[in-house]
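Following up on my earlier thread - several people asked me to post the actual chain instead of describing it. Fair enough. Here it is, all 144 residues.
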Amino acid sequence: MAKVEIDVNQLPVGLTKKDFVNLPELKSQRSWFTWAGIVGIVTGVLGLAPLGQAAELQAQGYQVDMSMIMIFTLLSLVGLVLGIVLLVTKETKVAYALGVIGLLTALLAVMSGGRIGAGIVATVLAIVGAHKIDTLWNAYQMRR
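Reply from S.P.:
Thanks for posting it. Predicted structure:
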């Protein structure tokens, strides 16, 4: 499939950023947000699993340090919510926020001796998609 260049000079004048993002010509760029939202939701849900595992271990009488687990749980919940919001709104601010949460989660995972998870995929998708749309939006605004 050939890459399609978008000529911002051919787009209607006077669009808001929301209208601009929803143009049919930007379907390819919006798809980055769709995939980032889906990955954000999936990794957010999967990120809640350690909380259940820790609760099960505590119920069995083991001592569990819940501090890191609660931080990852909070980040997972935020990633889950941002993934849903990104799917609904397709806003670049939300995409960047999801990217930051993904980076924080990956950084904490590495610092705590873990591995970078699949959530980093949402980070890349969100940031690349937001950058593509912001670049086009800036070019569109410059022509007015």
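The mean pLDDT is 90. That should answer part of your original question.
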